[in-house]
Amino acid sequence: MMTSAMTARLKPVQPGRSSLVTVLDIGSTKICCVIARLVPREGRALRGRTHMAEIIGFGYGPSAGVKSGVVTDLDKAEQAIRSVVGMAERAAGITVQSVVVNVTAGRLGSETFSASVSLDGHEVEPSDISRVLIAVNDRSVRDERSIIHALPIGYALDGQKGVRDPRGMVGETLGVDVAVISAETLAMRNIELALNKCHLEVEALMATPYASGLATLVDDEADLGVACIDMGGATTTVSVFNEGHLVYADALAIGGHHITLDIARQLSVSVADAERLKTLYGSCLQGQTDETDVITVMPIGANSHESPNSISREMLTRVIRPRVEEILEAIRDRMQATGMMDISGRRFVLTGGASDLTGLPELARRMLARNVRNGRPLGVSGLPDRAKGAAFATVAGMLVYPQVCGAEYVQPRPTRKLTGSDGYFAKVGSWLKSGFM
Predict the structure, then answer these.
(1) What whole-number distance in Å separates Cα of residue 94 and Cα of residue 103?
(2) What φ, ψ does residue 155 adopt, rounded to 5°?
(3) What is the pTM of this model?
């Protein structure tokens, strides 16, 4: 629910002022921590990129105790997080106390809620905005799930949609549509518990598909309609943007590591060798010379005296392609079931570490019947060379998040006062100003 501790505690970065932010990407195959100084940007940039990220600390290492975004071993997860965060702290020369962390676990999903309130013909005031958003909150609260993001995507006056900023307008009824992204509370609590064992506080939880979209999409794509598919190690997430807003997010517990395991099982090689084969020779589509191209592989458990086996590249492709098709079919079916294929327009963007697989854009183009391109982090400078690829799109998106999180709505706790310069209505007005200016 919006009043729970799962919603963002992160304060939006102020225009013209610098700020420090620490982001932590907890994946199933890797963990990455970045400490950055957000410096006001001069000149033209992508929408929402008011600041430039100067990386002062970077830590990267293998994941442990995490499977498909879910914490499965607290002790192992704690050690892996401590190692990576410590690496970034030593590089930056500071001690981290709180982090922005991504969320993929907990059956991540989204719904659009609508609500309306009566205006009785008077002008729309911040109190009316707060009333209609609270009405959305009352409809979306569920005991077993917590809301991560609540993003207003459009207002309506007297049934007329498309109102971007209703303040000062008159009407009888004010309505709002809000995209609500939620996940299971207990799964997120375990992530928070692992971080607390590392003496770290959660400054904000951010949905992985939202972060990937912020990092890789250009403004025109987000306005016209686009879907961003982030293919990670053990999860694949999808986000849909339309009219500049995130309107849909989903996650599948299948990723690039499942392709690696398929190769290891069917070719009887070690997981490390299977990963090497996938990276160096793997493809989703068969080439003209694949039947004659021979790859030598060492059987699992073989000693140095045994001769390696030989396979054709065509055989490797026949192992890889079914799993990739399974992922793309699952995404297509879910989006068609929710009506998001039409809202996403004619374009898909692929990102994440597994998106580097040869032939993936071409196969996705055939199966999804849409234009497809590979996405890389945009609008974030200063990342290390090894962090500029698609595998680090989530990290880059989390660095953008403090610049755009002011557009979200979080209901203040009941103990806060309602009037005055720092009261509830004043803060809602400040939120409106930052969200619509």
Answers:
(1) 25
(2) -110, 160
(3) 0.87
User: Residue holding tokens 């909150």?
Assistant: 137
Structure tokens at 194: 């692992």
Structure tokens at 344: 């996403």
Task: Enter the DSSP assignment of 430.
Answer: H
Which of 294, 275, 372, 377 is CA-nearest to residue 331?
A: 372
Residues 6 or more apart in contact with residue 318 via CB below 8 angstroms: none
How does pLDDT run across 314-358, given as a tens digit for each residue?
A: 999 999 999 999 999 999 999 999 999 999 989 999 999 999 999
In angstroms, the CA 202 to CA 24 distance is: 10
Specify whether the CB–CB gap between 230 and 209 falls below 8 A: yes
331-340: list long-range contacts, CB under 8 Å, 24+ apart.
331/229, 331/236, 331/238, 331/250, 331/252, 331/368, 332/367, 332/368, 334/238, 334/250, 334/252, 335/227, 335/238, 335/240, 335/248, 335/250, 338/248, 340/227, 340/240, 340/247, 340/248
3-class SS of residue 93: coil
- The Cα 91–Cα 85 span in angstroms is 10
Whether 124 contacts 174, CB under 8 Å: yes
